[in-house]
Design a protein that fits this description.
Helices cover about 0% and strands about 40% of the residues. By secondary structure, it is an all-beta fold. It has a domain of about 50 residues. Strands 2-1-5-4-3 form a five-stranded antiparallel sheet, with no helix packed on it. A hairpin with a 3-residue loop joins strand 3 and strand 4. The termini are far apart.
């Protein structure tokens, strides 16, 4: 069962009766996607996008001399 996202009413729902829709993209050529109809607003919805893994967060601490000192919060001013 696929998860779908309705962008109109911001509802995430699952549907067993997904419809395969074929279309032609002017860059990628023939494409297909699965759609379902929202149970609340009856609008056409696409599959919920899966978030891509992001980069690891960098450390927020900045050492003095880097040009990013925060005034009195910097250890140079204490």
């Amino acid at each position: 069962m696929a998860s779908f996202l309705c962008r109109d009413c911001n509802l995430v729902f699952e549907d067993k009766k997904a419809i395969k829709k074929e279309y032609h993209d002017y860059i990628f050529g023939p494409c297909e996607k699965y759609i379902a109809y929202c149970p609340e607003c009856k609008g056409e919805c696409s599959e919920k996008p899966v978030p891509k893994p992001g980069k690891a967060k960098q450390a927020t601490q900045v050492e003095c001399g880097s040009g990013a000192c925060q005034g009195p919060a910097c250890s140079r001013f204490q």
